[in-house]
Amino acid sequence: MTQVGIIGASGFVGTELARILAFHPHAKLAYATSRTHAGKPLSAVAPDLAGIVDLELHAEPGDAAVVFLAVPHGTTHHILEQYPHLRRSVIIDLSSDHRADPDFVYGLPELNRDRIGHARRIANPGCFATALLLPLLPLATNQLLPSTIHASGITGSTGAGAELSPTLHFSWRHANVQAYSILGHRHAREVLTALNTDAQLHFVPYRGPFTRGIIVTVVVALPLDQESLTALYRQYYQSHPLVQLSDDNPDLKRIVGTSRALLHCSTDGKTAAIVCVLDNMLKGAAAQAVQNMNLALGIDECAGLPMRAIGW
Questions:
Q1: For 169-203, how does the pLDDT look when each residue is reduced to its tens digit (9 = 90+)?
Q2: pLDDT tens digits for 209-239?
Q3: What is the domain range of residue 75?
Q4: For residue 22, is it within any domain?
Q5: Could you tell me the strand order of the sheet in which 214-221 lies?
Q6: Nearest in space to 264 (alpha carbons), one of 291, 303, 304, 237
Q7: Residue 302 within a domain
C-alpha cells in the first residue's frame, strides 16, 4: 500500500480526499494535517468519517510517498520550503500556485496523461478550468479552436471553500443566483495557458443555490453538422474513461457524487454549444487529484474513485 499524506485536511477538498483515500485499494492515509484542528480526530471536521478513518490531525507533515497539498492559494511555496523532506514525495498541489509552473505538470489527464505518468510534481487544475477545458480539447487538438470563445457556468457553494463569506450564508445563497468575476475569472486565464493559445475566452461564472456541481456551456463558431461534431468528441474521449458523451442534455444529479464528467454537443451547423457537467469536489478537485496519483504510480487511473451518482 502506498503511504499518502494530506496537508490541509480540514477544508472541503481535504476532507473529500480523505473520503476517497479511505476506500482506495492501493493507498493508505498515513497522516493528515490541520493547523487549526491539530490534536483532534479527522472525524471532528468530517463527522461522516467517524469509524471509517481513525486518524488524528497533526500540525506538521510526516513522511509519505505521495502528498496532496489541499491548502489555500498562495501558501504552497512556503510549505515546500519549510518542509524539505517533502521533496522525496510525489507532490499533487490542488491550489492554483503551480498551474503555470514549468517544474509542475498540469494535471488534466485528458490533456497530459503520459506526462503525469512520469511526474513527481503535479498541479491539479481548477474546477471551472476542468469544466471549460474538456469541451475545448477536441477542438484544439483538431485545429478547430476559433479565435473567440464564449462560455458561461454555474457552480455550487463548495467551490468557494469552507471559510465563510457573505455569499456563502444560507440566507443569501438559498434561492439566489449571481454572476461574479465577470470576464475576469482566474480559471479563464488558466485555460488559455493550458491550451497554449492566443484565443480570447469570454467567460461569465455564476454562484448557484446548491452545494456541489458545475454546469458549463461553451459556445463557438464551428461549421460542422451534428453527426460530425459528435464523432469528433467521441473519437477524442474514447480512451478517457472519466469523460463520457451524453446523447441528451445532462443535469447535475447525474454527476454529483461521481468522478465522471459528461459532455453534450449541439449545433445548428454554424455555431456549436458544448455542455459539460461535473462534480466540482470530485472531477473538479479531489477525484482528479487521486486520478493523477494513480497515473503517477502506474496503476489503473480509476482505482478507488467514486463512480455512483446520487441519482435523486
A1: 777 778 899 999 999 999 999 999 999 999 999 99
A2: 999 999 999 999 999 999 999 999 999 999 9
A3: 2-124+285-297
A4: yes
A5: 178-179, 200-207, 148-155, 214-221, 271-278, 261-267, 243-245
A6: 237
A7: no
Q: What share of the chain is helix, strand, coil (3-state, %, to 5)?
A: 30, 25, 45
**How would you class 145 by CB atoms within 10 Å of its CB: exposed for 0-12, middle for 13-18, buried for 19 or more?**
middle
Query: CA-based diameter of the chain, in Å?
Result: 60
What pLDDT was estimated at residue 255?
96
Same domain, 38 and 150: no
Write the single-letter amino acid at 189.
R
Exactly one of 127, 265, 276, 302 is catalytic; name it. Answer: 127
* Cβ pair 205, 128 in contact under 8 A: yes
Residues 56, 136 within the same domain: no
Q: How many domains in the chain?
A: 2
DSSP sequence for 53-112: ---B-BSS----SEEEE---TT-HHHHHHH-GGGGGSEEEE-SSTTTT-TTSEE--HHHH
Nearest to 270 by CA among 224, 217, 214, 307: 224
The residues near 160 (Cβ < 8 Å, ≥ 6 apart) are: 167, 168, 207
- What's the pTM value of the predicted model, to 2 decimals? 0.95
Dihedral sign computed on CA atoms, order 100, 102, 107, 112: positive
Does residue 197 sit in the same domain as residue 252?
yes
* Residue 183 dihedral angles phi and psi, to the nearest 5°: 60, 15
Give the list of residues 6+ apart from residue 134 with CB closer than 8 angstroms, or none. 110, 243, 261, 263, 276, 278
Answer yes or no: is 113 within a domain: yes
Q: Is 127 a catalytic residue?
A: yes
CATH of the domain at 87: 3.40.50.720
Report the distance separating Cα 34 and Cα 208, nearest Å: 29
Same domain, 43 and 103: yes
